[in-house]
Amino acid sequence: MNRVRTGLERLTSTPGTGRVRVGLITNPTGVLPDLTHAAPALLAAGVPVTTLFSPEHGLRGTAQAGGGEGDTADPVTGLPVLDTYRRTGGDLDALVASSGVEALVFDVCDVGARFYTYVWTMYDLMGSAARLGLRFTVLDRPNPIGGAVAEGPVLDPAYASFVGRAALPVRHGLTPGEIAVFANRAIGAELDVVCVEGWRRQWHFDRTGLPWVLPSANMPTLDTALVYPGTGLLEGVNAAEGRGTTRPFELVGAPYADGRFAAALNDLGLPGVRFRDTWFTPTFGRHAGVVVRGVQLHVTDREAFPPVLTGVSVLHVLRSLYPGDFACEPFLDLLWGSASLREHLEAGRDPRGLCPPPGPPQGELLYG
C-alpha cells in the first residue's frame, strides 16, 4: 500500500517556532494519519494557532446540510471557534479581523464536486485574506475520487453562488490547493500551498493509505463521494437523493416512481454502473417518513463510471417516465451552473447532450 503525505503531515514534521497568530480553517477531516486533529498537531509543532474557523457542518461535523455549529470553543484546545457559514464579503472580513489573526491556514478534505461547499469557504476566506493583507496557506489533500478526470459543464459566472464560485466543471478533478491556485488569479491573495507528497492523479482515496474521515454528515464513504457529482443534482428536483438513509446519494427515488425506473436506467447501458430496484424510507430530509421507490447505484467499474452523465440520465428518466409528477426547482440551476439542464428537462428534451465527454482537468496542476 502506498501512503500519501498530506500538507498537514509535511508541515508538522518540521517543527518550528511561529511568530504570527494563525487562524486555522478546518473540520473533522483535518487529521494526521494517526487521527490526531490538525489543531493540537499544529500547536505541538510550534504553529501559534489562536483561532479556529469552521465551514458548513461545523468544526465537529454535527450540523446537517445548510447549517453550521455557531461560535463556540474547541473542547480539546480551548481555542475559540468562529462559524464562517453564510458569512461573506465585509461580514466575513469583520469576523476574521475581530479574531486578531495574522495568517490563515486551510486544512479540509474536498470530495471532487463543484457544488460541495468547503472549497468555496476557502475561496471566500482567501478574499478576506487578500483584503486584510494576510497570508493564506492551503495544507493540500488528495482529491478522493481521483484527479485524472473532469466531467460536466463549466460554471456560467452568471450562476455563481456558494455551490460554485469559479468556472470549474461539475467534477473538477482538482485538489483544494489546485483550486486555490486557479481562483487566486482573480483574488490576488498572498498564497502558499503545502503540496501532497506521493499522490498520483489517477488514484482514488483508498490507494493513499490515509484514513477516511467522513467529510460531512451525508458523505459517509468513498462510495458516496464517487456518485455524488451526479446524484447530488437530485437536490434540485422533487426526488429523494437518499439523505436520511445509510446510503445517501447511492439511493435515489421518488414516491411517484415504480418498477420501470430501474429497468429504464439499466436499458441505457451506462458504463460502470448498474441500478437495483429498491424501496427506502428517508428518516429526514426530502420525503421524510414516506416509502419511496427508486434505485440503488452499484458502481461496477469506477474508472469507466461517469457520475455526471449518470446523474443527468437519472433526471432524464424520471422526467420521461413521470412527466406529470417530476418537477425541477430553481436550485438545480445553481448546482448545474446554468439554466440549461432545467430548461431541457422542463421542455421534455433529452439533456444528456449537455454533458461534454470526460477529459483531463484544466488549470495549473500541481501533481502529475
TrEMBL record:
GO terms assigned for molecular function? peptidoglycan beta-N-acetylmuramidase activity
State the superkingdom: Bacteria
Annotated Peptidoglycan beta-N-acetylmuramidase NamZ N-terminal domain ranges read 22-222
Domain Peptidoglycan beta-N-acetylmuramidase NamZ C-terminal, by residue range, is 226-352
Q: Which InterPro entries match?
A: NamZ (IPR008302), NamZ_C (IPR048503), NamZ_N (IPR048502)
Region listing for Disordered, in residue ranges: 348-368
Q: What is this protein called?
A: DUF1343 domain-containing protein
Q: Which organism is it from?
A: Microbispora bryophytorum
